[in-house]
Amino acid sequence: MEHFKGGLTHYSMEVVIPALLSRKARGTLRVERGSVIRYFFFKDGFLVGEGSNTPAEHLGQVLVDLGILDAPRAALAFEAAELAKLPYGAFLVRQQFVELPRLLEALEHKAREAFFDCYNWDSGEVEFTLQLPSLEQAVELKMPLTSLHRDALSRRREWRTFRTVFPGMDTTFYVFREHSVGRFSEEESVLMKRAESGATLAELLASGKESRIFVARRLMHLYRRGVLAPQRAQNNSMGEELQEQELLDAARSFVEERKYDHALAVVEQVLERGPVPEAHALYRDAEVKLTLALCDELFSMDGRLIFEPLPRPLPSSLTADDLYLYSKLRGSVTIRQALRTAAMGEAGAARSMHRMLAMGLIRIAPSLEGFEPKHKTDPYGFQPRAEA
């Protein structure tokens, strides 16, 4: 692969990454738009490192967002790493602020989110060079580029659906409190209050501690349940109304057959076209029934989860959402807390957890008696000391 430079208008990530993959390129990809610059380092079909000039994407901030370190501890460690002239991640592991597996989770999460976001850029500059920075002292990643490209395309389709429902960044919302009875995370409750105060879509997307996609997912969840609706609703033609009725009839049949996943997928197609009261009601009904069916068994596993180390490189069957939930579960007090606060929604999180159980990444201890978690640390990541 030779050096090249061009505009994202013609050389989008969707075009560039398959070209790098086909040649197992080794080098650095710089992607720039406005004031944001990101660097991706590749070796033999793997992403081995990533860097950004955006404060929100700093490793210390990501560790805080994931609940791995608290903010004062992360800032103190950063200053100490600067004095020691060591890469931040390597310093955290060497000084036992963070265990290596947890640091890798944070680094991979940071790299994935930056990588996925660049797929939505349709302007800016992209450049590939054959040089790589020295990674001798750094904690090196090994993330298969094939899986990253697959998940990035999936994420891009998700954004397109979101923008179909909420087409303008100046969109404001109706809030229907009568449909807000039930399970809502703290993050969703905050979004509802801000929407009631007249916040625009742009303001809501910028309000989350995590990346914009997680805020977008929570907004879609609230919309599908009928709690939020854009104030400029779409008008359907007669043909579209007839097709909607057929889809709603199919969704009701799926609910009756207890195929709740199928029902949700069908209702989501209807709601992509605009708010439909009957579709919102069906969505709420199917979601509650699916969540009850999936979660009762999972909640009984509280305190009994054993987390196996993630294999390196990561299996291609693992999705970005699976890895996100893996970190959430490890950082949460209870399974219920992790599933209810996951940006993918409670039902989606439960399905992801079932996949990880089937793959053996999470195991269940046989009983609570005498059980000690396999990976136990104090809140700051230090190994607990033995009693004297």
Describe this structure in words.
By secondary structure, the chain is an alpha+beta fold. The chain folds into 4 domains: 157 residues, no CATH class; 67 residues; 58 residues; 65 residues, no CATH class. It is 50% helix and 12% strand. The protein contains 15 helices and 10 strands. The strands form 3 sheets. A 6-stranded antiparallel β-sheet has the order 1-5-2-3-4-6. Strands 7-8 form a two-stranded antiparallel sheet. A hairpin with a 2-residue loop joins β3 and β4. It is globular and about 60 Å long. The C terminus is likely disordered. It holds the Pfam family DUF4388. This is PatA-like N-terminal domain-containing protein. It comes from Hyalangium minutum. InterPro entries: PatA-like_N, T2SS_E_N_sf.
Rg, nearest Å = 22 Å
- Overall shape: it is globular
Structural class, from secondary structure content?
A: alpha+beta
Give me the strand/helix succession. Answer: EHEEEHHHHEEHEHHHEHHHEHHHE
pLDDT < 50 stretches: 373-388
The domain count comes to 4
Q: Bin the helical content.
A: 40-55%
Strand content: 5-15%
Task: Provide a count of the helices.
Answer: 15
Question: Strand tally, please?
Answer: 10
- State the strand order across the main sheet: 1-5-2-3-4-6
- Would you tell me the overall average pLDDT? 85
**Cα distance spanning the termini:** 59 Å
Largest β sheet strand count, sense and barrel closure: 6 strands, antiparallel
